[in-house]
Amino acid sequence: MLVCLGQKYYLCTHMNKIEKISFGYEGKEYSVANIPDVITGTNRNILIGPHSLNIVLYDDDKGYADDNAMRIDEQIYAYLEDEYFSLSYVDFLERVKELLD
User: Fold this and answer.
1) Are 80 and 98 in contact (CB under 8 A)?
2) Is the whole-model pTM more than 0.85?
3) Cβ distance 40 to 27 under 8 Å?
């Protein structure tokens, strides 16, 4: 499924062990994990993005790269180092809880 949200980014879903949503921004793809909320335990899902996406969306000195970057960032609960996205589903959830709780 492909849903166009703007000229610079789009969203499509891919089913995997960890359900991932692929965000395209500035011509590059970034996999964002769509996981159960292991932080608050509420009955909802949260999006966890890779640090590499956070870097292109937001600069500590200049702020958001553009309005589309801000829209993407507002959907993501938190960012983790990119290497965590290759973990198994259970290990990923445990790591999220450990780092963000």
Assistant:
1) no
2) no
3) no
